[in-house]
Amino acid sequence: MFQKQYCLVNNNTIASDALAAYFYAFSSEEQLHQALAVRPSGVGCFVLGSGSNVVFASDVNALVLHNVIQGIDVVDRAEGVVWIQVAGGVLWHSLVLWSIERGYSGLENLSLIPGTVGAAPIQNIGAYGVELCDLFESLEAIEIETGQRISLNKQQCDFAYRHSIFKTPAYAGRWVVVSVTLRLRSSRDGNRFEFKTEYGEIEAELSRRSITRLTPELMSDVIICIRQRKLPDPNVLPNAGSFFKNPIVSVDECDRIKNKFPSLVYYPLEGGKCKLAAGWLIDQLNWKGKEVGGAKVHDQQALVLTNVGGGGKAVVDLSKRIQGDVMDAYGVFLEPEPLIFA
Ligand code: EPU
Fold this sequence. Notes:
The chain is an alpha+beta fold. The chain has three domains: about 5-65, Uridine Diphospho-n-acetylenolpyruvylglucosamine Reductase, domain 2 (2-Layer Sandwich); about 70-230, Uridine Diphospho-n-acetylenolpyruvylglucosamine Reductase, domain 3 (2-Layer Sandwich); about 240-340, Alpha-Beta Complex (Uridine Diphospho-n-acetylenolpyruvylglucosamine Reductase, domain 1). Helices cover about 25% and strands about 30% of the residues. It has eight helices and 21 strands. The protein has helices at about 30-35, 90-100, 155, 200-210, 215-230, 250-260, 280-285, 310-330; strands spanning about 5, 20-25, 45-50, 55, 60-65, 70-80, 80-85, 105, 125, 130, 135-145, 150-155, 175-185, 240, 250, 265-270, 275, 290, 295, 305, 340. Strand 6 and strand 7 (about 80-85) form a beta hairpin. It starts with a strand and ends with a strand. The mean pLDDT is about 95. Uridine-diphosphate-2(N-acetylglucosaminyl) butyric acid binds next to strand 14 and helix 7.
């Protein structure tokens, strides 16, 4: 049933050629239950979607369970609203395209994010002012240890910036998200959509195209254009998107850094906190475009590290050097965004 010593090179966007001791792709909940029932004893499990937010820096001595369950269903409707249930193995961007084709709104700012729907709640994916939690209704997950199925609502998932309950020690690595239910807006009954356009890059692109009346499709197209300009296509340059989270610090800490670096890019948050632009912090230290041992900081975006031949280990080694420099220069710890398998 399981493939042994399986090379993961085509199953992660950083193109690490790590080996999985065992590998199994499941396309239904039944198949997942069967796999869990007969898994080799004493071997842990590692759940993998499309591998866009994981870095394999060593071989994986575990059973890698690859979620490819498919299906998107409209499960409820109300005036101007539609609820859709999406299987965990669906590719995120294909869901975005599906929703736009049907005239639903809500996902357009999240266009072109790599990864699967099942992985989206784990780190509460987000871009251009929208996060998964803004559209999230509930999810269904199966516990690896017991096979038990649970349903969690938005509050129970405890979402925050690139965070959910699935990142906490009690939950991390223990559950397989088999489906996610989202609440989208539908244009039936003539309601008008609202769009989040306040990011400078979006405003610039809208005025460049002289767009005055937006649709979900146009908005998605604008986002795709912006992302393609600065984020490398993993099929061309293997990468895992933003390699670090934007660090959240106190206002006092932010002021301290700003005094030394007046052009610091930051976003004030509620509760006396500020989010610093990690890309800016790294860029200022002249890391953009630098290559060390087969890993390279992307030319257009300092937050993205690419594998240029050294594999996952080289990318992690480079990330540690950047972390050290950022700590020395600003006294700020950069937390990696992808899951690192060292
Ligand atoms: N900046 C630089 N130099 C750089 C990169 C960025 O000076 O090399 C500055 C930019 O000029 C800008 C600021 O830093 O003023 C923020 O940069 P950007 O708008 O590119 O966004 P980001 O903070 O780098 C975040 C997400 C992205 C998401 C974008 C758009 C994180 C860790 N990353 O990036 O998400 O697409 O905002 O909303 O929150 C991902 O998670 O993989 C990802 C790509």
